[in-house]
Amino acid sequence: MVNNNSNQHDLFIDRELNYKSDNIITSIDIGSDKIICFIAKIDKILDKEKPRIVGFGYSQSKGIRNGAITNISKLEESIRRAVDQAENLAGFEVKNVSVNISGNYIGTERVFGEIPIAGDIINSDYIAEVIDTAKKKFSSNNKKVLHVIPSHFIVDGIKNISNPSGMSANKLGVKLLFIFGKPTHISNLETIINSSHLNVTNFTAKPYVSGLSVLTNEEKEAGAACIDIGSGSTSISIFIDGSIVFAKSINIGSWYISNDISKVLSTPLDQAEALKTFYGSTLRGPHDGEEIYQTSLLGGNLDETVSLSRSKLISIIQPRFYEILSYAKNCIEQSGYYDIAKRNTVITGGGSELTGSVEFSERVLDSRVHIGRPFNINGLNEQISGPVFSSCAGMLIHSILTKRKEVNVQSKEQNFAYKIIQKIMGSGF
Question: Which of 236, 223, 208, 251 is nearest to 329 (CA)?
């Protein structure tokens, strides 16, 4: 395709790794508004690995609406266009890619497993056994597992233990978070990617990777919620003690705001999107009524326009943005981690860039809020450092975590993590 002229970790790791060579990873974020592709090289400095973007591309999404595939050939064309751009900048072709899943096509299930220890000292064998016990309780019917993440261990009834190794106990328990996707949707996406002469090595859940991208290690340890407001869907994740403990994606996003503007003003959708992007806000100001804009009418000629004030535009935007945040708040309340989210919530995604989004979100969510942008990635220039790129950047971080073959224990002993992995790999579903 290329033009030669021009801190927590997923246990589901027994998959082909996402790289053409040892230091190349590629991610594709398939959204309802944009297809984004990142190609990165892995820089290693002092035993730490960090992605460095060497190619990127994006194209307008066609053949997908609100997360649902509506036209296979058009979606394939959109993906190929984004990948071609990224390959041209990188100067080489890629084969293996990570792909994001969002919307109502993902779900979660929490399971608990426990084994007797009889006063023995907990070692990697016991930890692997209790994890395997919990995994067997997962109901896998009509589910494609994307991530398996230990939330925490329980030792003799004591919860929130990150690494029980070396402790004496009578019982050892573990809570696992399964994040899964809808098999038919994943199969359709894989077919489309394969038609583009690419191979999917990882499907990732958007709530998880968005959180990986924008939350600091300190935020993930202390507890924080991440709300990624995309075009067709909004993803919610909650982290505590360095681990994701909740993930949810709902089929409502900023596209609905543009659609509302289009309907109320009888203006084309692209004009509505432009009005939202350049003049839209979630908060009223003292002079909004004096600012007058012109926009073309739906189905009319270029001379047919309608006038509106910024105040009118805000009156259209506010109710839908409130609805999106209310759905997210309801999900957080039902998660059981609302107190954590109140302390710190990060909003990201294209919808977070609306003027006044932070202040409005704080009011609706009753939480401390700030905008999250991708970080811990080299090569993020001004073009690709905004919140809309958070998810695609997060997939690069996930690929590195997968490549390292680490598990979500807080032990700094590499051999300890390795022993656990050797025990749980191949246990399968």
Answer: 236
DSSP state of 303: T
Residue 185 is classified by DSSP as H
Residue 402 — very low, low, confident or very high, per pLDDT cuts 50/70/90? confident
Q: What is the CATH number of domain 107-182?
A: 3.30.1490.110
- Give rounded-to-5 percent helix, strand, coil for the chain: 40, 30, 30
Q: Which tokens sit at 398? A: 């996930």
- Could you give the CA distance from residue 43 to residue 23 in angstroms, rounded to a whole number? 8
For the record, the structure tokens of 355 come out as 């003027």
- What pLDDT is attached to residue 65? 84
Mean confidence (pLDDT) of the chain: 87
Mean local confidence (pLDDT), 272-295? 81
The alpha carbon torsion through 296, 300, 305, 306 (nearest 10 deg) reads -90
Distance separating alpha carbons of residues 379 and 385, to the nearest angstrom: 9
Task: Provide the whole-model pTM.
Answer: 0.87
pLDDT of residue 38: 98
What integer is the mean pLDDT of 167-174? 95
Amino acid type, 287: H
Name residue 263's amino acid.
Answer: K
Per-domain residue ranges of the chain: 107-182, 217-374
Architecture of domain 217-374: 2-Layer Sandwich (3.30)
Q: What φ, ψ does residue 178 adopt, rounded to 5°?
A: -95, 125
